[in-house]
Amino acid sequence: MGIMATIVAFHAHPDDEALLTGGTLARASADGHRVVLVVATDGLMDRVSEAGAPRLAELRASAAVLGVARVEHLGYADSGHGPVLYPDPGDRTRFARADTGEAARLLAALLREENADVLLSYDANGGYGHRDHVKVHEVGRAAAALVETVRLLEATLPREPLVLIARALRALRVPPGFDDTALARVYSPRSAITHAFTVRRFARHKQAALAAHVSELHKPGRMSGVFRMLVRLPAPVFGLLLGREWFTAVERPVAFRGGNT
């Protein structure tokens, strides 16, 4: 058996771990590495009720499927996606409004506690641009700069295939009519990607992890419809569609200078 590593995956919301890195986490765990999952937010827009945060319970169920050894929440609230950043819910700060240095220090403390070898974060665009995903990128880079022994890999997708698909759908007049010009500004160009992991044999794990997020599957909206479609696919088809995961290695993150970004 080779040298075992500790991998910390830092995500914005419950369910992000399944879509972006689920196969990689399951593969790492199956290979004997220690996998730790950290989310910045509990995925809720409002004050947490006495019943607690259901999406964190779903996150723990997803983590169990993926073989994750530890799950942590940094304590922030979901910032929502759209033109308006709503006021804080009263018991938590919205992540987009959080002090970057403070959040980075929380994450860095966990990296040191775990003696982490690898930190998984997000690319500079925050994937598709969600404000919490952009913040994960900023906090991830700042935390990695504080813990010089950790290697930073930023989860992403190659944008070129997305643009081609969007153009094909537009030509075929298939709704909802994705904007390929907007897609040209998301995720990462293929030339920037340094690691592409084949995780097809962990398709069932990734699909089951996604299915664990029951509250997201039953919400109205286009994204929930996509989730429902994905969890209903035969596992081999799911594996063909989502059987690779991409990352960009960051050689040495710039040290954080202070303030909020």
Describe this entry's structure for a reader.
The structure is a single chain. This protein has 261 residues and is of the alpha/beta class. The chain is built from 10 helices and 7 strands. Strands 3-2-1-4-5-7-6 form a 7-stranded mixed sheet, sandwiched between helices. β4 (118-122), α4 (131-146) and β5 (151-156) form a beta-alpha-beta unit. α1 (16-30) packs parallel to α2, α3 packs across α4 and α7 (203-211) crosses α9 (222-232). The model has no long low-confidence stretch (mean pLDDT 89).
**CATH architecture label of the largest domain:** 3-Layer(aba) Sandwich
CATH superfamily of the largest domain: LmbE-like
**Quaternary structure of the protein:** single chain
At CATH level 3, the topology of the largest domain is Rossmann fold
What proportion of the residues is helical, as a percent range?
40-55%
How many individual helices? 10
Residue fraction in strands: 15-25%
Outline type? globular
Structural class: alpha/beta
How many structural units, i.e. domains?
Answer: 2
Question: How many β-strand stretches?
Answer: 7
Strand order of the largest sheet: 3-2-1-4-5-7-6
Q: Report the C-alpha radius of gyration, rounded.
A: 18 Å
Largest sheet report: 7 strands, mixed
CATH class value of the largest domain: Alpha Beta
Instruction: Return the average pLDDT rounded to an integer.
Output: 89
Unreliable stretches (pLDDT < 50, length at least 5) are none
State the separation between the terminal residues, measured CA to CA: 43 Å
The helix/strand series, from N terminus to C terminus, equals EHEHEHEHEHHEHHHHE
